[in-house]
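EI: anyone free to look at a 222-residue chain?
SC: sure, send it
EI:
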Amino acid sequence: MTNLVLITSIIDPPQKPLSYTNIRSIYSKSERFEHTKLTIESVKQKVPNVTILVVECSLLNDDELKYFQENTDYFINIYFDKTLREYVHGHSKALGEGTMTICGLEYVIHNNIDFRNLFKISGRYWLSENFTYKSFDNDDVVVKYIDGDINNIFTCLYKLPKSIGVLWCQFLKNSFNHMVNCIGYEHLFSMFICSLKDIKICVLERTGVQGYVSVSNDFYNG
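SC: here you go
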């Protein structure tokens, strides 16, 4: 059965501060686009039986739009919905990420897209040589704790079984006020994971993802 990979992406972020930093991105639109191409290509190379869904929130030129349409199975650009764009381009990182994730999961649910595993990866990050598919090829929730903290779970790459993906969508919709108030998205995700019952959680030390941190010139590899 298919592995569904949800990629959340903003290749052209607004020049507005986030709640925790005045710098939203040091990278240009063209640089962010090239990084996102690496995301998509690495997923195609390293995840078998893959279906790719990208949720974008940018005004794209013809070449950018053509690339996404030709290299993904499903492409959604929510930029033209003013309310959704304001959520994503606002000062709350959690509200932006949560909104795009909800939009992607609702699209999957409403269109009855079948899959076994739901991978979520942030655009501009890509799967590295340390990514091992067999670590994710199970019926478990697969996550990484940041610095070993169960209350702080890495959200750049994680995997949920199908039934849990539906629950995650509902949890996010019920957490709108938390997101508006700029809760840490990693903390919000941990709240959801800790709420799950009768599901095995596989915790990895390294997920096998790498990329450039948006607000600095740091390169993440973990």
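EI: The mean pLDDT is 95.
SC: 👍
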